[in-house]
User: Which sequence fits this backbone?
């Protein structure tokens, strides 16, 4: 199960990939070099992330949740840790339904 803690790698804009990896290094102790070398980063949206997982080789079963931190970052950008504005909050619900309809 991934994404359950609120942190994750999708949705993520290309300019936020570095931040996502650094967050996972700090919070989950995932080695940065492993992520940098092993992640294809061929997605931006959550549905594209699920497609990427399907294309890749897996050694275990996976159940991904859509992490709220990534949704917030998509709306707030680098201000993700700040309290979002009304405009930020209005963008977030639009990011979630396409992922919910994906499966």
Assistant:
């Amino acid at each position: 199960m991934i994404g359950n803690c609120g942190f994750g790698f999708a949705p993520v804009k290309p300019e936020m990939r570095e931040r996502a990896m650094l967050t996972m290094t700090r919070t989950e102790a995932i080695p940065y070099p492993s992520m940098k070398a092993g992640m294809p980063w061929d997605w931006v949206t959550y549905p594209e992330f699920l497609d990427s997982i399907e294309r890749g080789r897996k050694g275990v079963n996976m159940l991904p949740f859509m992490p709220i931190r990534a949704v917030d970052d998509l709306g707030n950008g680098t201000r993700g840790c700040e309290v979002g504005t009304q405009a930020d909050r209005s963008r977030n619900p639009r990011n979630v339904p396409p992922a919910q309809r994906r499966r």
